[in-house]
Amino acid sequence: QVQLVESGGGLVQAGGSLRLSCAASGSGLSINVMAWYRQAPGKVRELVATVTHGGTTNYADAVKGRFTISRDNAKNTVFLQMNSLKPEDTAVYYCYRHPLGPWGQGTQVTVSS
Questions:
Q1: CB 3.0 to 4.6 Å from 78: which of 1, 15, 34, 102, for a disulfide?
Q2: pLDDT tens, position by position, 29-57
Q3: Apex CA 21: angle with CA 15 and CA 24, to 5°?
């Protein structure tokens, strides 16, 4: 059974950077598409970025050019490098293994103006 644990969230000023990590335990992770989602207060959870086993990436328009998703298959870890952060990036960020889960517990990212 796969478990996902996110880390790296925190409080940062607008224009700053954070790097999120998602560590997976269990087997079979490397063949899956991995994703980062986020959920702001009062809003639905939205897709931020995905990365395939081979490293192909896709991004939501809101984060293109600022965020970079990557993965280390040998270490069963997925990363989200977030640069030029904006207050509207404030949310709980979740790691997810497509297509059947699980979800991680989430890590809070707060960007102050």
A1: 34
A2: 567 899 999 999 999 999 999 999 899 99
A3: 165
